[in-house]
Amino acid sequence: MTDLKWIEIELGAIRHNLKWVRSQLSPGVRLMAVVKADAYGHGAARVAREAVKAGADSLAVLTTGEASSLRAAGIKAPLHVLSPVLPGAARQTARLGVTATVDAVDQARALNAAAGAKGLGMHVDLDFGLGRWGIPPKRLNDFLCALSRFKKLRLEGLSTHIAYVPGKNTVEAEEKLRAFARLGQALKSRRPGLLCHAANSSVLMDFPHWQLDQVRIGNLLYGINTAKSKDAPLKRPFKFQARIIALHDVVRGRSIGYASEYVAARAMRVATLPVGYADGLTMEPAERLISFGAGFQYWGLLRGVKAPFIGRCGISHVLVDVTDAPGAKVGDAVALPVRRTAASSHIPRRYV
Known about the structure:
There is one protein chain. Helix content is 26%, strand content 25%. By secondary structure, it is an alpha/beta fold. It has an eight-stranded parallel β-sheet. β6, α7 (140-147) and β7 (153-160) form a beta-alpha-beta unit. The longest helix is centred in the middle third of the chain and has 21 residues, at 170-190. The two termini are 15 Å apart. The relative contact order is 0.14.
């Protein structure tokens, strides 16, 4: 293989994770697989196909543009746009046949005008404090009355995304979920078949009794469990790797890296990797100012052995300490930490 850096994505791990989530759901609860942001950097089209095969009922994207990319890739599964569809995107939304999120009358008016004879489904989103979009819960009835004059639109769901951080605001989250469920139940009495959904990955794990009609799963699908209450037998499908392109022996006391910020505390074997913050790695140095070899914050893994970062991460290279990885040689692959959504789209993806 000639690639110096690549991202390896194990599709079987994604299927495993989705099937595990499915096993945690109560009978009749639908599973929406979140593939926004290019499926958290995993590749939206590939993940969408695997998710549907593994039992996802629908797929969630952030924008109509993301939905368009999936349709162009041949994805025919039900698609849901999580952010409000602006009037300028109404025609595209109708053409794609996706479910829209609405939180303003002008959005609904544009969607109604663009909808064909079959009409268009929509979900209304409520803002319970996150503040990103959605209408205040106290305005729900007035908003629904305003929407009632748009005859081509079907209210299919009621959603919210509470501002819950695992281990932080549990009591507040429980109160908001209960309040949302109460509103949803009252509305469902007048609109049978309405889908109420508030559970993302962390809510599903920490508040499984609030699955309601549907869960929206992102983090768990990609092997990330932020919950404090429960472990999950997830697999990590994403591995960012780069090959060693140079090796150097460094004597104790030598300064290396930008601004000579790092001083070797011992004789070291140092490897150069052709990746940097342009690829999604951190821009932070291993330590602030002068480093004397302790307190590393970041590292790669070479055959299971930690290889700590040395000094600052450059735009297209980083130095790592491979002293404790005997036999390290040019061409060896080192697995690196990177926020998946920050990983450059130019880095080749290998699907296994």
